[in-house]
Amino acid sequence: MTDQPWIALTRDISPALEHCELTHLERAPIDLARAREQHEAYERALAELGCDVRRLPAGDDMPDSVFIEDTAIVVDEVAVITRPGAASRRGETAAVADALAAHRKLVRLDAPARLDGGDVMVVDRALFVGRSERTNMTGIRQLRDALRRYGYTVQAVPVRGCLHLKTAVTSLGDGRLLINRGWVPADAFAGYELIDVDADEPFAANALRVGDRIVYPTDFPRTRERLEAAGMDVVTVPADELAKAEGAVTCCSLVFRA
Ligand code: CIR
Fold first, then answer.
1. Strands of 153-158's sheet, edge to edge?
2. Which of 23, 96, 107, 144 sits 20 to 30 Å CA-CA off 198?
3. What is the largest CA-CA distance in the chain?
4. What ligand 1 atom has the least distance to the C-alpha of 164?
C-alpha cells in the first residue's frame, strides 16, 4: 500500500522522438538530453505533490510515447483505453493498458473510433471532448457509452487551430477553466469561471492540476501572473523542449487516485 494519494503514470522519451507527429508546428531540432532533463524535472514535481510516479519504458518505434495522456482516460471507476487519432500512435496503448489493468477495470474504444486523451477534459462528472483532427464523433460516442453508467456526462466541443481540446482549455479546479478562446468556443463552458491566457501566450492554456496545486510551464509568465493573482499555487516546470513535439504538461502523465 502507498500512502500517496495519486499514481502518476509517465513514459520514457523514445530515442525516436525527432520523428514525432506534428500538426500545427514546424519541425525543429529536439535536444533529446534536454528533453529528458525536463521530463525528469516534471516527474520530480509530481512526486513532490504527492504522486507515486511510475515510468513505463518507451519503444524505439514509438516516437510519441512520452505523451501518455493520449492513450487512456482514467476515472475513479474505470480506465478507457483510447484508439489514438494518429495511426503511428496506436501501438502505444498496449503497455499502458497492461499497467492500468492493475488499478482499474478496462474498457477499450474500437475502430472506427478515434480519440486522443488530450481531447478529454474531466471536470468532476462532466467530460468535455474536443472534436479535433484526432478525435471523431464515433470516439466521443463510445466514450459516452463507456462512462454513462457511472454518472458521467460527455459533451462534444469543436476545436479549431490547435492540436487538442486541452491545448485550448484546461481545468484549474473549483469551477475555473484556463482558456484560449481563439481555439475553442467559450460558450461551451457556461457556468464555469473562465481565466483567459495572455494574448501573447497562445499556448498557455495547458495546466495540470494535482490536488490543490497547478503544474505549469515556465514559458508563460504573463498567464502565470493571472493564475497567481487568482490565488492559485503554481509549481513551474521547464517544458519548452517537449513543446517542440507539440506536447505540454497534461500530456506527459496519467494522474489518478491510487
Ligand atoms: C502528437 O502529435 O500526437 C504528439 N507529437 C504530441 C501529443 C501531445 N499530446 C497531448 O497534448 N495530449
1. 120-123, 126-131, 153-158
2. 23
3. 46
4. 11
